[in-house]
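Exercise (ungraded).
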Amino acid sequence: MAQDPAPLPPAPLTEEARRRRRRNAVALALVLAALVLIFYALTIFKMGPAVLDRPI
Amino acid sequence: MAYVDHSREFAVAGGARVEDYVALLKPRVMSLVVFTAIIGLLLAPGGIHPVLGVIAILCIAVGAGGSGALNMWYDADIDAVMSRTANRPIPAGRVTRSDALTLGLLCSVFSVATLGLATNWLAAGLLAFTIFFYAVIYTMWLKRSTPQNIVIGGAAGAFPPMVGWVAVTGDITLAPIVLFLIIFLWTPPHFWALALYKKGDYGAAGIPMLPNVAGEQSTKVQIVVYSVLLVGSTVLPLAIGMSGVIYGAVAAISGLSLLLLALRLLRTAEPVAMKRVARSLFVYSSSYLFVIFLALMTDHVARAMGWV
């Protein structure tokens, strides 16, 4: 029985594909940064000064 | 030796642009959702912190986007055969179906959870129900099985102003139900007008739109019936004291124009002219809803400032 062929190496990225991938990564980073800001703002504006009110 | 086509996978992995993921969120539908949700939020009695208000609108927008992505994930097969939708990211081969599904689910879960944390869980529950209604009830079930798909599915598009309102008040009263009703009754004449001049497309995709199933004449009659109901529903904000003369004047003039256009469509039998009138009605009804909601807002502001 013939052996399974070794997987082909991935083709190198073209310059265009590399550029798109970089733009997608930047967009994703911006989305994540926006999420951090939203949850920070949410905590502060929802709880106000009570955010520090933590009796032991 | 088995041939493994890496090029296809590779083309997809390197081919998607940010714009393609944005397109999955249906930005044009999202803009109407955002607009009506903002109006709902601003008309609601009481107040919400502006930052929380902006977050709430963002959540509603992302939730709508998530349901749009889920719709494109499920409908990729029929999108491929309709000229209007053939260039969407999935049928065009720029984004994989699983990527669209992941994006849709992520947007849906995050938007609902964040809205709940920012405002209240009734608003979040309504948003979750809206996404479920659009993605499951409309897309997976009604769209392919009944010519009344648009009538019932229209509820999904009618919820956003109610979600905006409930985000402020935390309860459902008559006023947000009136906002819901206006969009709910607006949907059938709007989309049946589109279906009349895109009848061939829907037929090719096997979607049972009303003109393909019941015929053009019956569709035109139903457009008139729903237009009358719609214009009737636009009187309700006046009847419950939610709006005053400014809104009343705008609603009367724009409603009368809508009715006249619907009647013109009913009387036009010649196919080419009929398609032209149907297209006019589709375009007019888009701006009609915009004008009605803008009038609600203008009237509200004018009364709050004591101008009328």
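Further reading is listed at the end of the chapter. For now, observe: Chain B is about 80% helix and 0% strand. Chain B has a mean pLDDT of 91.
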